[in-house]
Amino acid sequence: MGVIIWIVFGALVGWVASMIMNTDAEQGAMLNIIIGIVGAVIGGFIMSFLGQSGVDGFNLYSFLVALLGACALIAIVKAVRT
């Protein structure tokens, strides 16, 4: 995927994950993008650990994998902060 697609994908995933984890008011657009991209990497790692494929394009499966990773990332950050 190109850099622009990663940014758009990261923004969507980060925004949805922040709404699910109830941190949307604390984050801006740039942090949503970063959380979405890092979440995609974490989600890919989790899925490869489970024997499945990770993020492989702009599709629903990749979105759900990235969302899993982004929610895990937000949960870890919330646990460390408190």
Overall SS class: mainly alpha
- How would a textbook summarize the main sheet? none
Give the helix tally: 3
Strand content: under 5%
Structure description:
This protein has helices at 3-20, 29-49, 60-81. With 82 residues, it is an all-alpha fold. The protein has one domain (3-81). α1 (3-20) crosses α3. The N and C termini lie far apart (36 Å).
Short summary of the structure?
With 82 residues, the protein is mainly alpha-helical.
Describe the secondary-structure layout:
Layout: H1 3-20, H2 29-49, H3 60-81
Helix pairs in contact: 1-2, 1-3, 2-3
Features:
single chain; 82 residues; mainly alpha; 74% helix
